[in-house]
Amino acid sequence: MADLEIIGVPFSNYVRSLRMLCVEKGVAYTHTSARPQSPEVLAIHPAGQIPVMRHGDVSLFESKAIATYIDKAFPGPKFIPEDALGAALVEQWVSYTNAKVDRWIMREFVVPSAFFDKAKGPDTARISAALPEIDKCMQVVDRAVAETGYLAGGSLSYADMNIVPMLATAMLYPAAAEVVSGYSGIGRYLASLTARPSYVDTAPPPRR
Ligand SMILES: N[C@@H](CCC(=O)N[C@@H](CS)C(=O)NCC(=O)O)C(=O)O
C-alpha cells in the first residue's frame, strides 16, 4: 500500500483531480473511498468536505493545498510551476474555476439534478437558472484555452486537472451538455484531456 492516501468518494470532481495529478506525476497512491462528513473525513477536514489526504504524519484538506503538497513533495514533472507568474496563473485559474465553474456546474446544476427528495422531485427552477451562468463561464474558458489548448501557461497544469472533471460531468446532462457543446475550443480541450490515461484510469465506478 502506498503511503500517500487520497480520501473521498471517486465521483467527487476534486477527488478525481487529485488522482489525475498523481497519475500524471507517476506518484503511487492509495485511494480510500469515504463520504463527506464521515468520521475518517471529519478527522482531517473541520467541515467534513472531501478530498482529504494523509502522507505519513501529514494530513491536509482543500484540494489545491493537497495538489501543491503532492506537486512539491514528490518527484516527477511539475504541474504547478515554481516561478512566480507560472504559479500565479495556475492559482488564478483554480480560484476562478472553483468560485464559478464548480459553483454553477457542480453545486447549482449537477448536485440538484442528481440528488433530490424523491417525493418533491428536482428543483427545476434552480437547475434552469444555472444554465445561463454556465454559459458565461464557458465563454471565459473557451477564450482561455483557444491559443494553446491549456488553461495556464501553455502546457498541462493542475489548473486543467482541476476543471476537466467538472466539464466532463456537465457533458453527462443534456441541458448542460448543450451549453458546453456550443464552444468548439472547449470541445477540443475536453477531447484531448479526457483521452489521457490520468482521466481514463480514474473513472469512478458506474453509479447504481
Ligand atoms: N474547496 C474545497 C471544496 C470541496 C468540495 O466542495 N467537496 C464536495 C465534494 S466534490 C463536498 O465535500 N461536498 C459535501 C459538503 O460540502 O459537505 C476543495 O477544493 O477541496
Descriptive notes:
The protein is an alpha+beta fold and 208 residues long. It folds into two domains: 4-77, Glutaredoxin (3-Layer(aba) Sandwich), CATH 3.40.30; 84-199, Glutathione S-transferase Yfyf (Class Pi), Chain A, domain 2 (Up-down Bundle). It has helices spanning 13-25, 39-42, 63-73, 84-114, 124-146, 158-170, 174-181, 184-194, 197-200, and strands at 4-7, 30-32, 52-55, 58-61. A four-stranded mixed beta sheet has the order 2-1-3-4, covered by helices on one side. Helix 4 runs antiparallel to helix 5 (124-146), helix 5 runs parallel beside helix 7 and helix 5 packs across helix 8 (184-194). The chain is globular. The protein starts with a strand and ends in an 8-residue tail after the last helix. Glutathione binds next to helix 1 and helix 3.
Describe the structure concisely for a colleague.
It is built from 9 helices and 4 strands. It has helices at residues 13-25, 39-42, 63-73, 84-114, 124-146, 158-170, 174-181, 184-194, 197-200; strands spanning 4-7, 30-32, 52-55, 58-61. Strand 3 and strand 4 form a beta hairpin.
